[in-house]
Amino acid sequence: MEFWRIGEEVGRGKAVGALESELEEMENIFGVLVLGSFVGMPSPPMQISLDLMPHMEKELILMMEKVDTANEPISRLFSTFDIG
Amino acid sequence: MGKGGVGKSTSTALNALYLARKGYDVVIVSLDPAHNQADIFQKPLSNRAERVAPNLRVVEVDQDYWVKRYLKGIHDQINSTYRYLTSFNLEKYFKVIKHSPGLEEHALILAFEEAKRKFAKCDFLVFDMAPTAISLKFFSLPSLSLVWIDHLAALREEVIEKRELITKIKVMSKEIETDKVLSKIGELREQHTVLKERFQDSGKTKINLVLNPDELSLAESKRISAGLDEVGINVTEVVVNKDWQGACLDQIEEEFKGVPIFRIPWSSTPLVGEDALVQFLQEHQDRMEDQAQQIIGQ
User: Fold this and answer.
1) Three-state secondary structure of B222-280
2) Is residue B175 included in any domain, yes or no?
3) Which chain B residues have a beta carbon less than 8 Å from that of A45?
4) What is the pLDDT of residues B232-280, one digit of tens each?
5) B223 assigned to some structural domain
């Protein structure tokens, strides 16, 4: 039974892997749209960005991580598709 | 509202003073960063309501104060909601952000809403607007914000849908956790919709377009009217200040057909100080009474 449980968990993890990557990208896009002015990109009226900012810590962290990994896009892509 | 120098502040002061002398409780709120009411009434004015005549108070909105107050509020919220980015240095960003395009008009919106709340019981709340550019941005800000809010809401809903799907697969139950960002977007949508509808409702917001009877003033007034029309706002009345016969009046009447036109005669003496204003009102009692009835009756 333990074998099946572990197998099921692995299966579920693989099934959502691509979905999670897609979700991360969408959250990143949202972060860029709202807070893009902090990283040099066009953004909504400033007061909308500021009004939403207190509730977007996660997106801000994600954007800052994206900046860190921007130098290694290929390794990140390989990681997403579980290559190598 | 109107082109700079046409007499928005003076016509505001005249109308407000006339209504106050009739016994109505009137408050003038100056949203023009280059305030003039203190010069007109020859009294020091501030961010607080100061009485300049019986039944008449004036507030000169301090735009910098409202920008700082707003940014401090955001800063305090971030400090209380962020758990990990406690060292994220916002101070340097806020020093630059306070000069950002858009914050000026947002500060005026905040001051406008505060005035509505604070002076809800007065009979007439009269806003002496900034010159054309800032005023048009002020009136179009709710509509512009709603365009962005709608797009952000749609994208956020897609994010939540994906998140719920992942949770359902992983945990095999659909946990519906309230998304604070979407809740806030909903709040903003409601606020901007209420404001937009208020501006568009000529029963609640009356826009007096002030101009002088000359070509330049008329040209800018046409642009103002067109700009307001783009966001669904109508000019309620045209005020021709420093009126003298024959100059451009036919063109004004043609351009603003169907809109009541109120003409304030040219004054050979400066309209500065309560005494000078009262004398002018007495000399042109009939016209001022017609104007007052127009305002009271609306």
Assistant:
1) HHHHHHHHHCCCCCCEEEEEEECCCCCHHHHHHHCCCCCEEEEECCCCCCCCHHHHHHH
2) yes
3) 102, 106, 141, 144-145, 148
4) 999 999 999 988 765 688 889 899 999 999 999 888 889 999 999 999 9
5) no
Of A15, A37, A52, which is closest to B184 when you measure between CB atoms? A52
Please tell me the number of Cα atoms within 13 Å of B153 on its side-chain side: 14
Domain presence at residue B163: yes
Is A47 within 8 Å of B82 when comparing Cβ atoms? no
pTM for this prediction: 0.83
Number of domains in chain B: 1
Instruction: Work out how many CB contacts closer than 8 A connect A with B.
Output: 91
Complex ipTM: 0.82
Return the residue in B66, B78, B161 with the most chain A beta carbons within 10 A, the one to mutate for interface testing. Answer: B78
pLDDT digit string, tens, across residues B103-147: 989 999 999 999 999 999 999 999 999 989 999 999 999 999 999
In this complex, do B181 and A57 lie within 8 Å of one another by their Cβ atoms? Answer: no
